[in-house]
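Worked example 4.2. Below are the chains of a multi-component assembly; read each line carefully before continuing.
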Amino acid sequence: MNFFEFLYSRREDMLTLGLEHIAVVAVSVFFATVIAVAVGVVTYRLERPREIALTVASTFLTIPSFALFILLISPLGLGAKPVVVALTVYGLLPILRNTITGLREVDPAVVESAMGMGMSRRQTLVRIELPLAWPVIITGVRVTTLILVGIATIGAIVLGPGYGDLIFTGLSRVGTPVAVNLTLAGIVGVIIVAILFDIAFNILRTLTTSRGLR
Amino acid sequence: MTTAETGQQRRIMIELDALSKEFPGQEKPAVDGLSLEVPEGEIVILVGPSGCGKTTTMKMINRIIEPTSGRIILDGEDVTKANPDHLRRRIGYVIQQIGLFPHMTIAENIATVPKLLGWDKARISARIDELLETVNMPSSQYRDRYPKELSGGQRQRIGVARAMSGDPDVMLMDEPFGAVDPITRDRLQNEFLRLQSEFRKTIVFVTHDIDEAIKMGDRIAILQEGSRIAQYDTPEQILTAPANDFVADFIGSGASLKRLNLSRVADLELTQWATARVGTDREEALETLRRSDHGALLVLDQNGRPRRWVSAADLSRSDGQPLDRIGMEPEAVVEPRATLSDALNELITASYSVVVVVDQEGVYQGIVDIDQINESIRTMRSNAVARAREGLASDRGAGEVGSVSE
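Applying the procedure described above to all two chains together yields the following structure tokens:
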């Protein structure tokens, strides 16, 4: 059985795993975005808190993913939960960094004129600063998504959803002919998910960015 | 400090009372106990060297910068502690960098304050059309454009339109024409003065350029370090009677030439020139020229717009060509609103001794020649000197010196 025949025979599995993979990454990216943008908005004007937030988010990324998944088993059990938590933590840095950069790059004259016209701090943030920083923020979200699509495969060690399952099964059968096919199928699946996310982000970015900024 | 004596006492729109601002870590206060009254409907210019505190002073009026001490009284109401957002919606604000919102269309930019004020959609939309019309940018063409699609001068116009959108009584302008090229600046200044003659807003205008101050200001406050007022007076008085050496140095040399920025072409009696319509034949044109005492004839088109300067020599060499094909193009053309300085500039650049005056539609109104400009400089000077000496006399005490009549 060559690789393509193998893929064809597993097509239903491939589809199910693919949807799981997309779901777990999407949920994690959502949480990471909410948390990172919120932290960014609160800290971008304050030097110390900003530095601390960035340092913490970078430190998270240095924790080996394998170790983090295993650590999360005892509080959260097996399955999707520990995976979502771990991925959220890993996804913070790119979004946080881009949120802070994006907000700090907004032309001070624009903010001053918004204030000068009587917009409150909150109105200035929501109507002016965030829309202007948005192209930078969404780029961070996209980077996070690509990183998480890869890391999500390791979630299979805690029985998490997605293509990691194929890869780890392949690992357990090293030496048999099916091992290579399983691992390759996992890789192909991950690449396809990554490409789909990338296309989705390109469309989303175009739709959500003002024509005046393009 | 001297205050100009005005005929009618105007209502005070903005009163700054012992206003101070100290920034942390700076030895001297940026603004040190400034008191200033701004009469309703006037343009008051804050002018001074960089670092004198003029911008800080202006930004304390809408409390973009919060004063350390002192009071701000707007239209009789103490707003020093009022809600700053509500205060700012009543005050138009234009800064040098303009700060248009790049992600919003021109219409959305202009709609900002009306939206904050809770106007309904129809009223906002009508206001946008009205303002774009006011700044000579057809609404159908510009409404849905984005700031990046406009030229510098157009952005500046939108900045002004946006500041006027909520129909504020008071406007603050920080070097509003500083970032455009000199020719555009001149045009924007003239446009703005035309708007102001219509709307009569109370305006505080910051600049470092004394020429702009003289041209734009009803009154000028010349500020020294710490925003201390060196002189607060009409442009005329400041040019005529600088209160101290600081003011005299700041004005620099050529005060009488600067005075040319104070009078407008409309203030002069225009000279009528020998003219002919485009269709006129050569003999008739020659006859007109012969009857006048001028060296050349001004050819007007069907709508009365100047087309050519035609001299007797041009006519005799014309070989039957129509009048609008011979002679020279009239380059020095100004509107009545132009200052004498603008007119003189045109004369010099075009190397003529006369400048053609046209109305807004470009229709010929008359001529100003260099002698007239010269004459008005002379009159202004002697008036100014007389007034200065009058001030001298009244300072010395009552009764001693009789009044100087003009």
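Take a moment to check your reading of the output against the notes. Confidence is low (pLDDT under 50) at residues 1-7, 397-406 of chain B. Residues 370-396 of chain B form the longest helix (27 residues).
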